[in-house]
Write a structure and sequence with these properties.
Blueprint lengths: L9 E4 L5 E3 H10 L7 H6 L2 H27 L4 H6 L1 H12 L4 H14 L4 H4 L19 E12 L10 H10 L1 H19 L4 E9 L1 H7 L3 E10 L20 E4 L9 H13 L5 E6 L11 H10 L5 H8 L6 H29 L7
Antiparallel strand pairs: 1-2, 3-5, 3-6, 4-5, 4-7
């Protein structure tokens, strides 16, 4: 028998601004007595169970409500009318599969607010059924967010002669760039307030590759969030939209060095705070060398692999490293000598070639 949907009349509005109708009011009655596990019991649960718990409670409450409604109205299938509550539950579960994603998300939010779900439950709500995507896809100790937009382009004066130093000075003086940075700092501070025991580092930079190759000075932001002692569900792209720009989210960059989760996350933190080429602003709640140790391999990786820093900056950082300073300084001497030789060779070839002339 084909089920007939019941009329849906709007009757009230929750404090959160969610519009409720008659069916939603009944849904609230079925979630009122739900309880959540304690924090200790939560930590003992497998990650798969944690991710799906809130969704399962939402689906079960809705199916129970709908099953009772089918029984009261007699709009269930003939098999359900004769088969008892198990058959009605199956009918209700089939109906739930046709509920659109926006409505599922609204029901989930209603359940979370009505039952006063604890922070450890709220932090783990992820999209198991494709209806919600607010957190990263796996538990991590740190995550790197990057906001990039072609609209954040500095005036042509910033790209004059395609010099990074000139572009950085222009970026510091341009009013809209400074205002955007201030708004970004406020955005990050508000986001960090919602998290527990998190270190953070943010930076505003220029894309040196775009400047050198295309002659355009583009502004972008980085943010690294690092939990102090464990892997957690970090906010995902949908939860970190800044002025309409959705960030790219990756795990902390791997700069080599000693193994271990803590070392890797500090490497990512160091990547954000180190004085890189093209850096305009930087702000963090921790300081390298004072609050956490820096490995020499991180400095060499930023110099050789990524090209984020120059030899003088790398040398200044190496002097502060606790171990292997002599070897690292020798490696820097080799790098500097090879780069000087390459620069001299390029200058000689340019002089020999001379100005190019073309016959008409």
């Amino acid at each position: 028998m084909t089920t007939v949907p019941e009329p849906r009349a709007k009757v009230s509005e929750m404090d959160s601004g969610v519009q409720l109708d008659v069916e939603d009011e009944r849904f609230l009655e079925y979630v009122g007595d739900l309880t959540w596990p304690s924090e200790m019991a939560w930590k003992d649960m497998p990650a798969r169970v944690q991710r799906g718990l809130a969704w399962d409670k939402t689906k079960n409450a809705w199916c129970k409500m709908r099953s009772d409604s089918l029984k009261a109205t007699g709009t269930c299938t003939r098999k359900a009318r004769s088969g008892g509550w198990q058959s009605r539950w199956k009918d209700a579960r089939d109906l739930f599969q046709h509920v659109d994603s926006e409505r599922r998300r609204m029901l989930l939010n209603v359940l979370v607010e009505k039952t006063k779900a604890p922070p450890w439950v709220r932090a783990s709500i992820v999209s198991v059924h494709g209806a919600l995507s607010m957190h990263t896809r796996k538990r991590v100790q740190s995550a790197l967010y990057t906001w990039v937009s072609s609209q954040w382009q500095l005036p042509p004066a910033a790209a004059k002669r395609r010099l990074v130093e000139v572009a950085v000075q222009v970026a510091k003086r341009v009013g809209w760039a400074r205002d955007k940075y201030d708004r970004f700092v406020a955005f990050v501070e508000a986001a960090v307030e919602q998290l527990d025991r998190v270190d953070w580092a943010l930076t505003a930079e220029l894309c040196t590759q775009t400047l050198e190759q295309e002659g355009r000075a583009l502004f972008h932001f980085h943010l690294l969030l690092r939990h102090v002692d464990s892997q957690v569900w970090m906010p995902g792209p949908a939860a970190m939209v800044f002025e309409g720009i959705r960030p790219n989210v990756t795990v902390a960059p791997n700069l080599g060095g000693q193994r271990g989760t803590s070392a890797r996350t500090w490497a990512g933190y160091f990547y954000c705070t180190v004085p890189k080429i093209g850096q305009v602003h930087v702000l963090s709640n921790k300081t390298a060398f004072r609050d956490f140790p820096v490995q020499g391999q991180w400095v060499m990786a930023l110099l050789l692999r990524a090209g984020n820093i120059d030899v003088p900056t790398a040398r200044e950082l190496v002097y502060k490293v606790a171990h292997g300073v002599t070897r690292l300084l020798a490696d820097l001497d080799v790098v500097q000598r090879k780069r000087e030789e390459t620069r001299v060779t390029a200058a000689r070839l340019s002089a020999v070639a001379g100005p190019q002339t073309f016959d008409r």
